[in-house]
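During the first year of the project, the team set up a workflow for recording each protein of interest as an amino acid sequence followed immediately by a discrete structure-token representation. This format lets reviewers and collaborators read both layers of information side by side without switching files. As required by the reporting guidelines, we include two representative entries from the current panel. The first entry is reproduced here exactly as it appears in our internal archive.
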Amino acid sequence: MKVEVQFVGAAQARRLNEAALHDREEARIRDALNLLRVFHDRHIGLPPELANELSAAFPPHGSPDAEAGLRGAIYARLLQAIGVDPKLVRDPRHFDILPRQIIVHDCLLPLAALAVEAIGRTLLFCEDDDLPEIEPHAYENYLQAFRAALETLCATSAPDAETTSIDIFWERAAVKLWAAVRRQRRAGAPLEGGSLQMAEPDGMVLRFVYGLKPEPRIGADPRRIRPIMADEQNPQFTYPRQGGVVDIHSTRRPEDIDDFLISEFMWPPAILADRLLNGSNLAKHRPPPFDERRQILVVGASVDEPVTPPLAIARVAWLDALFRFSIMLHKSNLRRSQLRFGQWLPGSGIAHSALSVADYPQLGKFDFKSVGRLQMCGFFRDAGWLPGFVATRPQHTLAADSPAVASGDDERTRRFNLLMEKVAPELSMFGAESAGGDGVDLNLALVTVFTAGDDRHDDFAWHSRLGNPALPVHSLRVHCPEALQPGSSFTLECHPANSRLSTTVSLPSTALDKAALEQLSATLCERIFEFLWEDMIG
């Protein structure tokens, strides 16, 4: 939309500032003027009256003004965008933990830019005195229009209302700020550099996360689970408790002196010295404690970029299936399982997320058959996967000395090698020896690989790149079409081969609408969950 720009001379700008801020204390006046300068330097003509209100609502220090209604409206809209509990909407003070520059950069500046676009006009203060003055009534009309535009943008929308670009803006801002809140609480120290350290979420993937409400039909019986067990997990074997004593044995090792029986020290000094130097002594046999064993490792890897709509909807369907599968793992007492996801980003970068099922006891409260997107979003939001799962900026850059770089593979295989080396070194053919070896603590790995584009001349053998012989690995490749069009097909291919799970999921040949996308997402979720479930129970 075209925006009309009009400049306000320095003398008139000073008079407008004084009229708006004359009754404020000196510190508040300086802060409001600094805030005003931030907006005008970015060609956003924020009126000084609104700069005063924003300064009172979001002070750099101290408590906000109790009468700042704009603050509550902004926070409520942010929380509604990510489906946070309504109780928090009425008490949104947790955002106050953030430094103001983060809220200004990630929310207030783009919000004011949308208001300028809505009214189609902006008044910019400048240092030039040789400019015609704005008529008082024209400025008053601009102020009222700007305020009304902000109120409209901050108004909460109905749950079933049609999605607009404003909803997408609030989703992106809310995910970024909520992640900043979580990071601030965990770090325990103020964030430095503001949103420059924040992940930038992908609006398209977020729209598939929050905008679709599929209802997959999941059928699974937890009683069928027969997990693969390591020896120390097998009840047929007798093992001590961690730190316990197995028996008494004869030893000559100096490091066992601490475990010698007391009776061994009752010999006369000459005999005791001879036994220590030339003989053996009885000691308690106390083997090292067993490590905590994680039963299953679930990994998702997206190797193609940029993220296209088909790739985005497939990844979100996997996230839905992963949430339901994590509930199954928790209820099946496989709580030391690990969930991980990694994606390749432009600029040879990688973004990844990880969690352990044991860290989230709330999974036991869900029913994996009836949970919806609201519960899924809440879980992964609190687990820190949003915005990591939808990031557009890499968390890690390519390591130039990685053996995967010089492997001589094609581009897609090289990306997959680098992803697995960072996200799941236990499975990487380049990192398996150092990460796993004899001390591998996983029983089974389930890997889902996402690819997109023309696959006619592709020899991508992803399963051959999973190089740890000590760990059983079952993998699924979800190959997405180039575009979401009527009749487009998603190809699912399993390894080891499973004719029942290897299938094709197609969009209807009729018009492509929200109902068709929800049905596609539900079907993909069902097939991916079936792969995870069937390969887990064996």
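The second entry, processed by the same pipeline in the following quarter, appears below.
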Amino acid sequence: MNEDTDIAIVGIGCIFPGAENLDEFWKVLVNGEDHVQDIPPERFNVQAFYDPDPDHPYKTYVRKAGLIQKYDEWDNRFFGISDKEAELVDPQQHFILESVHMALEDAGIPKEAIAGSNTGVYIGAMNHDWDCVLRSARHKATNTTVTGTDSSILSARVAYFYNLLGPAITINTACSSAMVAFHTASQALRTGEISMAIAGGVSFILDPNVFINLSSARMASPTGKCHTFSKDADGYARGEGCGIVLMKRLADAVRDDNKIWGTLFTGLNQDGHMSSPITSPSGDQQEKLLHTVFEKCWIPPHHVQYIEAHGTGTSVGDFTEVSALGKFFSKHALHDIPIGSVKSNIGHLESGAGAAALIKVLLMMKNQKMVPSIHAKPLNHRIPFNELKLYVCQKQSSWFPNDNNRRIASINCFGFGGTNTHAIVTDYQKTKIPPTHSCLQTCLNLKKYIILSAEDLIALNNSARNLLKYLKNGISLIDLSSTTVHTRSHYRFRKVFVVDEIQDLALQIEQFIGEKSQVKPVGKEKPKLVFVYCGVGTTWQKMCKNLIQHDEIFKRCIKDIDYHLSFYANISVEAIFENEDVSDSLKNHLAIFACQIGLTEMWRHLGVSPDSIVGQSVGEVAAAYASNILSLEDAVKVIYFRSLNLSQESSGKMIIQVP
């Protein structure tokens, strides 16, 4: 593992069939659910276009797909889009915006923290159903029609809303689009072009023409199921949705103490003219890609414990892919490797397929479980699974780490135009556990603050209802407080619950919802805050003792100060606070400085930052540190030698010359 070149996944957001969020998607996977359904009339009149005869012109033999419920309901004003403009916005845009919002919340990164940064946006997309429907309806064009339908806006809309200054790129390589987006983002991170990436894929179903074309090509499943790896494989079932991940260099993610889902290494190649026609997959090129990726990432192939296949459920595609996988891994595998495909649960998301596959693997790693790949029975007898040292994962099982205490998986993703991608995913184990905020709140004699906020009252009440449901899962009140205070954007309408226990919180939320309390929006102007760092005359014996005993943040600051101080003298600020006399000028000044630094970091940890900073006398050094003028190391050096020189002066006076 190389922190300088490895790419970390630090946040996930998704909307898939049967799942409006990450938790619901895990339930779909672990329960082996199938969310392919009959296409409802509000999408299009299926009966008018249906005919079981695949040779019937302008007809489709498909009546099912994996669909998002209430696809046309979203909070457009939250994303700065007027009601009038929203009428013409491709649903793929709001799938992406909502998924990005969820990914940022999952990562604990507020909107304000990335505004103006060189974060890049990379979105895989290939469908134009919305534009086709508007054209067929002869909808009168307006000044927002082009921004509502153009595919470049799918990525640009994210950059615009969050004020991101890195590249915003929409990528189309058909069904490998999302994985190509991850690869492109990874390369930009490695070269230093961007500091963070928002990457993923999206798809949306509204127009019958794609079904008609797929039926003519015999690529779609007449049964509306992805019978991946099965003798019954008869084509793929279409699906829609969006998956987004946040990506950073691993070193940066570790530095920023981000939650790390896992690390990602990707590779690409093309079939060229190695197979014919252009839509026919090349097993040789797929196998060659595996050799290339594993040679570059320095991960031994026999360490791979699971393979998420492209697995669309076409008889030719499944046979070609599994054969290529088996030819490569059977040379290295110490035991049979399980394979699966998320398409059997939610359909083939086409340009979003790679995102669904990656998120599935990351969820399995987090929950340490392998989930079933459904609709595989009876297995395709043409595929010699035993010889290839592969088997279809058809039941839930525990996922244990390998001998190196790691979980490693491979992901295949192919485009029907020949763009092949492969990814290697590894889990990540943090070596240290960050301190909680419990001591911080205790030492300041604070209760737990739970903050909910939204752009309007309806959304605020909905957030309260969602939180009430979430409380039933048995969560830590301390962690919940920390999350809502520190890692969420705070919008105009806010409600703060001040509580001691989860039961108190549940009761207050129920009262808030039941009473329909009026919440007034906060003012547009943020109050100005000044930090003042005073001089001498503010010490007392055993000062800050309780802070050191009960506050992890304060204690950590004092230990850092003592570490830097140890290079100059055998003095410990912690010992001074514990029981020493602070009347000595050297110790007095060091104590004031250390107290001010510790309090500064405590307030920062609470999310309180000053607009202005003023320092006087001894306080000037701490003020310089708080202003980022001095590092802690330099500030300790300055305060020590300043205080030492003053302590060695026996007497002095201030003289003012009077004319």
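For the second entry, the following points were noted during internal review. The radius of gyration is 29 Å. The longest strand covers residues 7-15. Both points are flagged for discussion at the upcoming steering committee meeting.
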